Amino acid sequence: MTPIPNTDVREFVVNQRNGVKGLVDSTKPTTLSSPYIQPPQERLTSDKILSSPSQVPVIDVSNWNDPHVASEICHAASKLGLFQIVNHGIAPTELKALVAAARGFFELPAEERRRYWRGSSVSETAWLTTSFNPYKESVLEWRDFLKFEFLPQRRGFDATWPPVCKEQVTEHFKRMKPIANNILTILMNNLNSTIDKTSKQTLMGTMRMNFNYYPECPEPSLAIGTGRHSDINTLTLLLQEDGVLSSLYARATEDGEKWIHVPPISGAIVVNIGDVLQIMSNDRYRSVEHCVLVNKSCSRVSIPVFCGPVNDSVIEPLPEVLENNEMARYRKVVYSDYLKGFFERPHDGKTTIESIKL
Asked: Domain Fe2OG dioxygenase: where (predicted)?
């Protein structure tokens, strides 16, 4: 394999639309190219990771009406902003089929994957890109991802989605919707609020899904798969691929420097609280800052579903949480403006939500 000069790596990966998967397939690198070497302060080193067993709650949701389940969910949303759910009703075989479909896409020939590259995709609701914001980042993330947008008005799957995965993607969107609704209902009830037609558009008027692909990395300690950030939407439901440890990490406390491992549990769904819920709850719930590390010996797939507002939603603390003369901690913002602020910069912790604090 002929190595690509560092000066040409970004051109090959981004502008020629090969992605980091194409880089790995084409060159089988033994060292990390300079466009991927993170500055020391952005590397998640072992001294920053809590060594105690995982502190991420695992909640059995086999009975959504159980008050204990609601209590556990609200407590986790308040303290860590992240938890895992099991016994949610989705069969393990269905989750494995979805992971296989994601891998199936990234195992397609490069020319076929390239048909879906952002800006020239054959689909209006599915597109592929690399890193996070490759045209704005000085250092790239070691990740490619295929994003899908679910449009409820279309019956069934979008015919323009890749044939290798479109059926599994459609079914997973449908399976996630009632789970997200159950969690949001519990969280809203805890704020003395209910979900009506208008608030449902704010809480989960849009649904998007990523197929994240993290290739094996020659020097993982120098790279990052996904940089530290909080999700800007309402709620994220993440499927981790079984068996790949030391990948997903969450900041243990809002202001602390320590991180905790979020281990993959077979059949579990990881639930992330997003910025929208932190804002609407006036900080009663916490959007969790998290990041993803990469592996030298194997690639990894993860599949998040993002539930969020429609673009013209106005996001602000709920009246119910301000009833006792509590001061709003955030100014109101139109969600499309909030999205724009997030996607105009590289991943940078919780900079976006901090920008609207009062």
From this structure: 205-309
